[in-house]
Amino acid sequence: MTERKEGNTEGREFVSVILTNEEKAYIAGFLDGDGSIMFQFIRRKDYVNGYQVRASIVFYQKDIHVAHLRWLKTKLNSVGYVRIRNDNMAEYTIVGIQLVLQILEQLSPYLRLKKSHVDVARKIANLLPRYQRLDKKLLLKVGKYIDQFQQLNYSKRRRNTTMAVRKFFDTPRND
């Protein structure tokens, strides 16, 4: 069951919500313990350079506590979507570089375990031109930081690495 009230939030601006310091600290603690911050390459055949940079924040909870994720969604301006997976887990996902960065800026002073994630996310943000297509050189530069998320998130199965993007660029294409 997926709630998509607002549809895809990719590229949508996050209107800053008024959270108390206590709420920011609570949400940051939740993200530290039962959440994930991800920057990743997504293979896109319709993109000129073949890959998209995707940023997301995901909060996880046992499905019997899905109401808690819905409460969290209301606190964060109803961006993103809540879904119940087949393994009795629920997740609240927020996708979009600007949305993710704006939320992380609010939570950053309260994060402990994911401070290094925010530092790398800021480096990516400083490289990304807003509303412009990434050229190959910049995509590979951003990839250096995206690859750091593999170590930060203990990711083992990641296939879309900077090396894969570089290989894609080096492979002759007929398009």
TrEMBL record:
| Region forming the signal peptide | none
Give every Homing endonuclease LAGLIDADG domain span.
27-117
One example of the protein's molecular function in GO is: endonuclease activity
Organism superkingdom: Bacteria
Designated name of the protein: Homing endonuclease LAGLIDADG domain-containing protein
